[in-house]
Design a protein that fits this description.
The chain contains four helices and ten strands, in the order βααβααββββββββ. The protein is α+β, with helices and mostly antiparallel strands. The protein has a single domain (about 10-205), classed as Sandwich (Jelly Rolls), CATH 2.60.120. The strands form two sheets. It has a six-stranded antiparallel beta sheet with strand order 1-8-5-10-3-2. It is globular and about 60 Å long. The N and C termini lie far apart (about 45 Å).
């Protein structure tokens, strides 16, 4: 019997900075906390949309353009995004890559970010600044899930590429990239400390 795998869903998980104690991570963590302290409108937005945590998504979503530190992070991320795009066989001739959004997230132990995707972009991702023990993972959903209809459940030992959900537990210093249409969520964690991450979107522009 010949089996042909079609329409793969690719996720790139890579260590951008070895370990979680880099100077960049310490500075990013300090800047994220300072931003939370200064961003009264963002704290109000987060109380409604990000209960138990803080995100600058509703108030400061282009941090790479206003902070030199976040700009440094964008320059470190960009080569990995380019490599990911090549692996996906996208034709970027006559097109340039552009980070359009970049925002900070600070999640308390029970903060949940329900299932969502990132419209108006084609590559999205997250860089992990602080991931204490017991912190929430990143959970991806099979994009075909709504079309399964009368399918029976998968076996418990099904390989990851055949499961309806895939859970990834990143560490501080890691970067995770995925195509923006891929639905994902962050369930509740059980860490005592705060999980700090920086999310971002990339789009393309014609040259």
């Amino acid at each position: 019997m010949l089996l042909t795998g079609l329409f793969p869903t690719s996720i790139c998980h890579h260590q951008l900075h070895r370990g979680g104690r880099s100077l960049l991570n310490r500075r990013l963590g300090d800047e994220c906390r300072a931003l939370r302290l200064a961003d009264a409108a963002g704290r109000r937005w987060s109380r409604e949309h990000y209960a138990g945590g803080y995100t600058s998504y509703g108030t400061h979503s282009r941090l790479h353009l206003v902070s030199s530190l976040f700009g440094d992070l964008e320059r470190a991320i960009r080569p990995h995004v380019r490599h990911f795009i090549v692996s996906l066989a996208y034709d970027m001739r006559g097109r340039r890559l552009e980070m359009t959004d970049c925002w900070a997230n600070i999640m308390g132990p029970q903060t949940v970010h329900s299932g969502h995707l990132h419209p108006l972009s084609f590559i999205s991702g997250t860089y992990y600044v602080a991931v204490p023990p017991g912190a929430a993972p990143l959970k991806f959903e099979d994009p075909r899930l709504a079309q399964f209809m009368a399918a029976p459940p998968r076996r418990r030992n099904a390989p990851p590429e055949l499961r309806p959900f895939f859970t990834l537990a990143p560490k501080a210093g890691d970067i995770v990239l995925f195509e923006s249409w891929l639905r994902h969520e962050v369930p509740a964690g059980h860490a005592k400390g705060e999980r700090i991450s920086i999310s971002f979107n990339y789009a393309w522009r014609e040259i």
